[in-house]
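From the pipeline queue, job 12 of 40. The input is one protein chain; the requested action is below.

Action: predict structure.
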Amino acid sequence: MLVFCVFEKNAYAEKIQPAIKKLKFEFFCHDLAVLHSHDIRKPKGDFKFLLNPHHREKFLARVDEVVGEAEMELIVHVIDKPKLIAKYANPFDPYYIALRMCLEQLSSFLKEKSQQGRLTHVVAESRGCTEDRNLELEFRRIIDPDFNWGMANQFSVQDTPFQLKFVEKKINSAGLQLADLTGHPIGRNYLKPDQPNHAFEVIKRKIFRSIWSFP
């Protein structure tokens, strides 16, 4: 699964970043903690205090508040790997399929907002030199109007001037933390749609059009 959190720059700088900083100062007395879904669910590191049920309830309520109020659109693509492998003998890398689909939806979103032709940065968390290099190569292939990997290319360099930027987790990007916080409840909703999922209820209205699944 891949999640794009799409922000308008002024809203990001003036509302979203300050809201996340305020949350961190409220619970950690500093803004250095990185909001990581796994560390929150399995309390460790800065989040060990969540082993206390009272603190956990209060913290999660504030996280829901910040995420719910964040002015953002979510573009999501879910790859069901077992179904993908069952259907295709030699499928494309699931991550790259999701990347292509999310970029196509982002391109469509920008056109709907009359933002086509404007430079749009796609920020990804660094996963290592080799992984980053491979991802950048695939990214460039996807946005290349002359590249065809089995389907018509939806991109025009003039219409969708995307630029890929890698950042390390320690950079403490508010945008990447929001993407991480929204990813887990979306994945849970896909795998167990009948199970109560309060976090998903908070974010589902922010999803652009619909959640795609494959195949």
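Job complete. The chain has eight helices and five strands.
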